[in-house]
Automatic annotation (TrEMBL):
Its main location: mitochondrion. The lineage of its organism: Eukaryota, Metazoa, Chordata, Craniata, Vertebrata. This is Glycerol-3-phosphate dehydrogenase, mitochondrial. Residues 623-658, 659-691 form the EF-hand domain. The gene is GPD2. InterPro entries: DAO_C, DAO_C_sf, EF-hand-dom_pair, EF_Hand_1_Ca_BS, EF_hand_dom, FAD-dep_OxRdtase, FAD/NAD-bd_sf, G3P_DH_FAD-dep.
Length: 691
């Protein structure tokens, strides 16, 4: 009753703002609906060049070299660049895309995994009466709806709880969340609602109960960001775009326009990073969609161009799934330093983040220990004291660079642009910068509209609203059952394949090897704790994977979920790729080393290893630590830094003690506090038998 009274008391105050926003919403909704109807009709007229087998990477490189002139060359294979390529090719423009690393190797694979309008942006829009910010949220909510429709296998609705610890906050946040629903209009995923304290704790039992008043639950979308990016790029390839990863721009090509007497960008000198071969790709229009590296390409165009990118690092951590319910996220709207922290279930693990700190631009950002500890501290503030949030529970951590930008078109070039900007240089280079993951499609549409106009390209309007992405065709929520029945896959593996590959999961299943067991019949796992199977490595090559890092980080997400499990899977991944790509033994060693370096630095293994050998949490003398270290190394003969059931079995057999595998696994599971299948030294010290 108290909750209802508090909410009713706020209704009169909020109604004026609600009505004003509602009127504005309906007008923009009507205009977009009319445009959408014409676009959906146009989509039906787009022909797909490659229905079945995609061209190989070598065939794509040949197309880049052999084509006399493209209409559009996109530089950058992140979400925005891939979106630009898809938008261009479906307008019947001859399209090319080059990416110096792998598709989604940068910021696009290191997000919070949310497809959202931005609750905090709406709050700022209302408080500051900022129309631009409001329209940004409105646009993002429209794109959220579209993305959920065009890639249903890679996306899902996610309820997010906002716990309330002060009575006055309940009506305040309720009004804000209701406006969020209202701005979404007909595209509201599900209506938000209020929970009593009892119900909130029932749905999120890990929540701190002291002083909890109640909670508000609203809905946003969630996705597998790297595979979504890949789906966009592969869809562009299917419609005929020539796309190539590991192809970098050495310099821009220019020619003098006879009519204007000015130099104009007419393509790029490119280099195949794998072979070192260089070649020219000529195009009427070049689009700079390089995210944090925007300024590097702008300076290739003109060294005098000022920097417009102001990079900010966002760190996320992954902790075991038992820290959050399977189907409920958590939002901390006001951390100790004013930031927002999300606490979300993802791939049966829990993601927590993000931070927002100035950083240097680098292709290999490293998560800093202070950022990891900041997130852990904020998580502790919202979870029950019964739940011990431990540094050793961080299974992976990563940093993504947000490419915040200043607008070169604005008089005030120092102020950060909250939305994306499209800029066309004097030489015709089209730059798209800023924005957010959710709005990649509308950013691409705006970019191509500007490019078509500036370069007099013959093209119609965008056709990407409602255009289904790779794997969406033939996907159904129950298709995993057919995978189990028709191929003999484990249920968990079948569910994973369906949600990662959609309708293409059948191709992965056909490639799966027989296990030699009664069940499952096919589908050998790369590591026992995760549903990734060996045939995914083979299929990854068809999806243009060129390195072991591509497989552990972006074709599968193993490196983002558990760095130790990823390291365990690496030898087998390298072996499979080596056979498929005819790698030499030297190349295999190089791949293994590079992938381990990636896990060590970029996925937080270094910070984790240093913390796990720090015994500051345990009150022991140096002599005691040394004694326990000797005991630990009796099991860890290979100096791996952890103990497995195999190590324990070997030691027990040496003293004629035999324990069946299941019992041994249960014993180690009690000591394995972070549930990664391995007992590190820090866990060994905290186990009662060790002491």
């Amino acid at each position: 009753m108290a909750i209802r009274k508090a909410v009713k008391g706020t209704a009169a105050v909020a109604s004026g703002g609600l009505v004003a926003f509602y009127g504005l919403t309906q007008l923009t909704e009507y205009r977009k609906r009319q445009a959408r109807l014409s676009r959906v009709e146009a989509v039906e007229q787009v022909n797909m060049a490659f229905q079945d087998e995609l061209p190989s990477r070598q065939a794509q490189l040949t197309a880049l070299r052999a084509t006399q002139e493209f209409d559009v060359l996109v530089v950058g294979g992140g979400a925005t660049g891939s979106g630009c390529a898809l938008d261009a090719v479906t307008r019947d423009l001859k399209t090319a895309l080059v990416e110096r690393d792998d598709f989604s190797s940068g910021t696009s694979s290191r997000s919070t995994k949310l497809i959202h309008g931005g609750v905090r942006y709406l709050q700022k829009a209302i408080v500051k009466l900022d129309y631009e910010q409001y329209m940004m949220v409105k646009e993002a909510l429209h794109e959220r709806s579209n993305l959920l429709n065009i890639a249903p296998h890679l996306t899902a609705l996610l309820p997010i709880m906002l716990p309330i610890y002060k009575w006055w906050q309940l009506p305040y946040y309720w009004a804000g969340i209701k406006i969020y629903d209202l701005v979404a209009g007909a595209q509201c995923l599900k209506s938000s609602y209020i929970l009593t304290k009892t119900k909130a704790l029932e749905l999120f039992p890990m929540l701190k109960r002291d002083k909890l008043v109640g909670a508000i639950v609203y809905y946003d979308g969630q996705h597998n960001d790297a595979r979504m990016n890949l789906a966009i790029a592969l869809t562009a390839a299917r419609y005929g775009a020539a796309i190539a990863n590991y192809t970098e721009v050495v310099h821009l090509l220019k020619r003098v326009d006879p009519q204007m007497g000015k130099e104009r960008v007419c393509g790029a000198r490119c280099r195949d990073v794998i072979t070192g071969q260089e070649f020219d790709v000529r195009a009427k229009c070049v689009i700079n969609a390089t995210g944090p590296f925007t300024d590097a390409l702008r300076k290739m165009d003109d060294q005098k161009n000022p920097n417009i990118c102001q990079p900010s690092a966002g760190v996320h951590i992954v902790i075991p799934g038992y820290y959050s319910p399977d189907n409920m996220g958590l939002l901390d709207p006001a951390t100790s330093d004013g930031r927002v922290i999300f606490f979300l279930p993802w791939e049966k693990m829990t993601i927590a983040g993000t931070t927002d700190t100035p950083t240097e631009i680098t292709p290999h950002p490293i998560p800093m220990e202070e950022d990891i500890n900041f997130i852990l501290t904020e998580v502790r503030n919202y979870l029950s004291p019964d739940v011990e949030v431990r540094r050793g529970d961080v299974l992976a951590a990563w940093s993504g660079i947000r490419p915040l930008v200043t607008n070169p078109n604005s008089k005030d070039t120092q102020s950060i642009c909250r939305n994306h900007i499209v800029h066309i240089s004097d030489s015709g280079l089209v730059t798209i910068a800023g924005g957010k993951w959710t709005t990649y499609r509308s950013m691409a549409e705006d970019t191509l509209d500007a490019a078509v106009k500036a370069h007099n390209l013959s093209a119609g309007p965008s056709k990407t609203v409602g255009l289904m992405l790779e794997g969406a065709k033939d996907w159904t929520p129950t298709m995993y059952i057919r995978l189990v029945q028709d191929y003999g896959l484990e249920v968990e593996v079948a569910q994973h394949l369906a949600s990662s590959y959609g309708g293409r999961a059948y191709e992965v299943a056909k490639m799966a090897h027989v296990t030699g067991k009664r069940w499952p019949i096919v589908g050998k796992r790369l590591v026992s704790e995760f549903p990734y199977i060996e045939s995914e490595v083979q299929y990854a090559i068809k999806e243009y994977a060129c390195t072991a890092i591509d497989v552990i980080a972006r074709r599968t997400r193993l490196g983002f979920l558990n760095v130790q499990a990823a390291e365990e899977a690496l030898p087998r991944i390298v072996d499979i790729m080596g056979k498929q790509l005819t790698w030499s033994e030297q190349r295999k060693r190089e791949e293994l080393s590079a992938a381990k370096q990636f896990l060590y630095y970029e996925m937080g293994y270094k910070a984790r290893s240093e913390q796990l050998t720090d015994t500051s949490e345990i009150t022991l003398t140096p002599a005691e630590v040394g004694r326990y270290m000797k005991r630990f190394h009796k099991f860890d003969k290979e100096n791996k830094g952890f103990i497995t059931t195999v190590d324990v079995q070997r030691v027990l057999e040496s003293i004629n003690v035999y324990i069946d595998a299941d019992t041994l696994h249960e014993i180690l599971n009690e000591v394995d506090l972070n549930k990664n299948g391995q007992v590190e030294f820090n866990e060994f010290l905290q186990a009662p038998p060790a002491r």
